[in-house]
Structure formats: structure tokens, C-alpha cells
Amino acid sequence: GNSVTQMEGPVTLSEEAFLTINCTYTATGYPSLFWYVQYPGEGLQLLLKATKADDKGSNKGFEATYRKETTSFHLEKGSVQVSDSAVYFCALSDPVTGGGNKLTFGTGTQLKVEL
Amino acid sequence: DTAVSQTPKYLVTQMGNDKSIKCEQNLGHDTMYWYKQDSKKFLKIMFSYNNKELIINETVPNRFSPKSPDKAHLNLHINSLELGDSAVYFCASSRSGLAGEISYNEQFFGPGTRLTVL
């Protein structure tokens, strides 16, 4: 079956540091890949997505590139802020017969950014 | 305007009770989902409905019964609550693709319902 593996957290960085959160996946077919972010006490929000190989998703300074050859979708940001402190989830999406799609999530990586 | 809303936000109850969580979306989507997030933040899909029809039913105890009265609502009823049911339950919705089209549409999540079983 499909699976997503993320680096263990928590990741603690100083403000303006470079961020990388690793994500690799195992899937049959050609899934779409997503990064979702969960701020404390809130639901998940889509951060960025990529639907095919070599696509780069980007939003709010975060980027991730869909690498089919390494089955990876690593999240990067050049300069993190305290407001980026949250839990980040990598996910892959498979379409479902009958409509919609099924998200398989990684375990989440907590990011703490300190002044 | 809230896109995906859930009630209640918090639910504290005793073992053995029956409880329901409600979800509504005003995005015009036709597919809705329930996810469970455990204490370690791990998220797993439980159910999905498309136009009131069940399309995903993961390995979930049959004490959990989803109901979709219309495509804007998906409720979750839980019978005989157990300690292990304590978690945050998230509702989500998405568009589905056109007939015969593969859909990778974004899922929009509600704020979650924190269920605590004592």
C-alpha cells in the first residue's frame, strides 16, 4: 500500500535559519503530493502541492519539488520566522473510484522557531 | 465565512456513552471525509462520502457510523465509547473530478473536534 515517511521532530531552529523537512513516499501509480500545515489548536491547511514529476509547489516562501526518481518531496524554506512554528504533514493523494481522493499522511514534523 | 465547520469543538464524555459529531461545508463540494488524529498527531482517514454515498470505509470499528443527509453535511456517530476513541476528529471536503477524470483536488479541513473519553 501507499505510505509516506517524514523526518522525526521536533525540529528547533533560530529565526532566519534555513529549513529542510524530508519526505519520501511509496506509491503505486502517480499520486499527487502535498504539504499541509497545522498551527496550534487549528485544523490542517494546505501549504503547497505538486501533481506530477518535476513540478515545484511553492507558497509563503516554502518550496517542494516532486522527485519521482528519488520518490521524495522535501519541504524547504530559506529563512524561517517564529510564525512558522507548527506541525508540517507530507501527504500523497490517490484518486478514489466514485469520486474524491484518499490522502495518506506522514507522521508530521513539529517545527519550533526561536528568536 | 467558515468553509468547513464542526460541532462541537470539545466533547468530554464517559465510557459507554453514545455521541455524535457534526460537520458542514459551504464550499459546494460533493466529497466529504472523516479523519482521526491520535495523541501523537498521526492522521488517518476513516470514511469518505461522495454525493451521500460511502466511497471509503477504512478498518474502523462498527461502533463508528457516518451519516450524510446531503452532500453538504457528514455526521459521525459513535456508540459505546471507549478510552481509545479519545482523539481529535477532523472533517474535510473536496471537489471530485468530472466523470472519468482523475481528481487530485485539495481537501479543506475543519477545525477539529477534540473527544475525550473518561
Helix-strand string of chain A? EEEEEEEEEEEE
Mind describing the biggest β-sheet of chain A? 6 strands, mixed
Strand content of chain A: over 45%
Radius of gyration of chain B: 14 Å
Unreliable segments of 5+ consecutive residues of chain B: none
Percent of sequence in beta strands of chain B? over 45%
If helices are DSSP runs of H or I spanning 4 or more residues, what is the number of helices of chain B?
Answer: 0
> Could you say which structural class the secondary elements and strand pairing of chain A correspond to?
mainly beta
Assembly context of the chains: heterodimer
Largest interface: A-B, 28 and 32 residues
Number of strands of chain B: 11
Describe the structure.
The complex is a heterodimer of chains A (115) and B (118). Chain A has 115 residues and is mainly β. Chain A contains no helices and 12 strands. Chain A has strands at 3-6, 11-14, 19-21, 23-26, 32-38, 44-50, 56-59, 62-65, 75-77, 86-95, 101-105, 109-114. In chain A, strands 2, 5, 6, 10, 11 and 12 form a 6-stranded mixed β-sheet that branches. In chain A, strands 3-9-8-7 form a 4-stranded antiparallel β-sheet, with no helix packed on it. In chain A, strands 1-4 form a two-stranded antiparallel sheet. The model of chain A has no long low-confidence stretch (mean pLDDT 92). With 118 residues, chain B is mostly beta strands. Helices cover 0% and strands 53% of the residues of chain B. Chain B has no helices and 11 strands. Chain B has strands at residues 4-7, 10-13, 19-25, 31-37, 43-50, 53-57, 64-70, 73-78, 87-94, 108-109, 113-117. In chain B, the strands form 2 sheets. In chain B, strands 2, 4, 5, 6, 9, 10 and 11 form a 7-stranded mixed β-sheet that branches. The mean pLDDT of chain B is 89. Classes of the chains: A mainly beta (115), B mainly beta (118). Chains A and B meet through strand 5, strand 6, strand 10 and strand 11 of A and strand 5, strand 6, strand 9 and strand 10 of B.
